[in-house]
Design brief:
With 317 residues, the chain is an alpha/beta fold. The protein contains 13 helices and ten strands. Helix 12 crosses helix 13. Keywords: Cytoplasm, Methyltransferase, rRNA processing, S-adenosyl-L-methionine, Transferase.
């Protein structure tokens, strides 16, 4: 996939979109176009982070890589084409291959072949950093297994942006990814996440945020929560409070835009047996043994299996 003409590979065509003849790379009014010339890249796969909202959050290195790569690949080719146009990066006859979770087996061979022939391939997900709850894992693994180099081109990430503004401890955190859509599976998943002694970051559909917080109220009503919406965009919003307070503040129809939910770490220090029994007594009045034990374990910091045994003993007694 290498261009034989060194000047062409370096992007020495200073006319940008005019060379393409299609206007694809014409910078939008008011935008500063990226430099057309860029150093030649070493062979390999370049995982390029792209903005999660504001287009100018892209890094200078990312622009250089997108400009100099021999082959471009993307989760959505239309999204990448738009990004290239915004920043004035010409295609110069280069292809943009589609590669996502549903076509990876068909798309990967062309990318692997390009790298094997000495080419540099830049891969972008729709937004943010590839592989962070985005496609690209199997591609990076296959390239590495074939002996190719895999390079990170870091930049925007919804995960890190949310941690930055959430106001929760960041010395230890768990990235839990997307919450399950089904209520039962989501409840069990939340119980496991809440039991981890760390701040937890999770992605959720804006329409299901209220349902998730309602379920969280049954597990740990006083859990500190931050709901981050539309990060880096015009209507960016961060809501902070307890799980129950936020569940009441969010409308029944849910929210709009991209959402990241941050759960603060569970309360430190394990409660004594008397406090655990008091908490269980209150929960067992309205909940099953299993659910009451999970909720009290998350609330008190005691191991769930120990709290479950105490709950069984109280019920039998």
């Amino acid at each position: 996939m290498r261009q034989a003409d060194g000047d062409r590979a370096r992007g020495s065509d200073r006319n940008g979109a005019a060379a393409e003849g299609q206007g694809d790379a014409r910078p939008l009014p008011g935008r500063i176009a990226a430099a057309v010339e860029a150093p030649r890249l070493d062979p390999g796969l370049y995982l390029v982070a792209t903005p999660i909202g504001t287009a100018r959050d892209i890094t200078l290195r990312a622009l250089d890589v997108l400009n100099a790569a021999d082959l471009l690949a993307a989760e959505d080719t239309r999204t990448l084409r738009h990004l290239l146009a915004i920043h004035g990066i010409p295609l110069r006859g280069r292809r943009i291959l589609s590669h996502h979770d549903h076509n990876a087996e068909r798309a990967a061979p062309a990318i692997l072949a390009a790298i094997a022939q000495g080419g540099a391939v830049a891969y972008c997900s729709d937004a943010g950093t590839p592989l962070v709850a985005d496609p690209g894992f199997t591609l990076a693994r296959d390239v590495a297994a074939a002996g190719g180099a895999v390079h990170a081109v870091p930049g925007a990430s919804a995960l890190l942006a949310a941690l930055t503004v959430a106001g929760q401890p960041t010395d230890r955190f768990l990235f839990a990814g997307f919450a399950p859509a089904q209520a039962g599976a989501r409840r069990r998943w939340l119980e496991d996440v809440c039991a981890v002694e760390a701040t937890a970051v999770l992605f959720e559909s804006p329409r299901r945020v209220k349902a998730l917080l309602n379920e969280l109220c049954q597990i740990d009503a006083d859990r500190a929560v931050s709901v981050c919406r539309e990060l880096t965009k015009r209507f960016e919003e961060v809501m902070r409070g307890t799980a129950c307070a936020l569940s009441q503040a969010i409308p029944d129809e849910g929210l709009r835009g991209e959402v990241v939910v941050i759960l603060g770490p569970p309360a430190r220090g394990a409660a004594d047996d008397g406090a655990v029994r008091d908490a269980l007594r209150e929960r067992l009045a309205t909940m099953t043994v299993r659910d009451a034990a999970a909720a009290v374990a998350a609330q008190t910091g005691r191991p769930r299996k120990d709290v479950y045994r105490m709950a069984l003993a109280m019920q039998e007694g």
